Backbone:
């Protein structure tokens, strides 16, 4: 049995926790492969930034109206290897604990609601807390530089 067959079989027969880990890993690998292709073909890496920006939750509520899917896609995006490593470790540890204490079938619902709550908290914080406002005309993050 090949490793690809084992992965497909464990995804099919695995729990919600296993599937979430595979989906997060798959999205990370696809994004990194696209970035590698852009790098190797000599195309501008700004395309990769635009793609990530397109899938990330914007801090501007008006942009969120244009990109509503980003409320869900950002939950599966990870910036670098250590970001995904620690997020998946936490997901594995706390997902197993959650499955033992509550019910593994409710994990996806909690995952989605947690992601939506995180997006709401990010948007509210970014727009209402003074610490997140740009100073002296400088953009705070790369998201504002793409506009």
Residues:
């Amino acid at each position: 049995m090949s490793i690809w067959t084992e992965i497909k079989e464990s995804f099919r027969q695995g729990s919600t926790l296993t599937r979430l880990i595979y989906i997060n890993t798959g999205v990370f690998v696809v994004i990194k492969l696209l970035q590698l292709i852009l790098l190797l073909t000599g195309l501008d890496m700004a395309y990769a930034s635009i793609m990530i920006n397109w899938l990330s939750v914007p801090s501007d509520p008006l942009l969120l109206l244009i990109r509503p899917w980003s409320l869900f896609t950002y939950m599966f995006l990870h910036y670098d290897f250590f970001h995904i490593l620690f997020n998946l470790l936490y997901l594995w540890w706390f997902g197993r604990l959650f499955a033992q204490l509550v019910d593994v079938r409710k994990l996806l619902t909690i995952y989605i609601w947690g992601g939506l709550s995180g997006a709401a908290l990010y948007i509210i914080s970014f727009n209402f807390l003074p610490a997140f406002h740009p100073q002296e005309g400088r953009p705070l993050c790369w998201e504002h530089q793409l506009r």
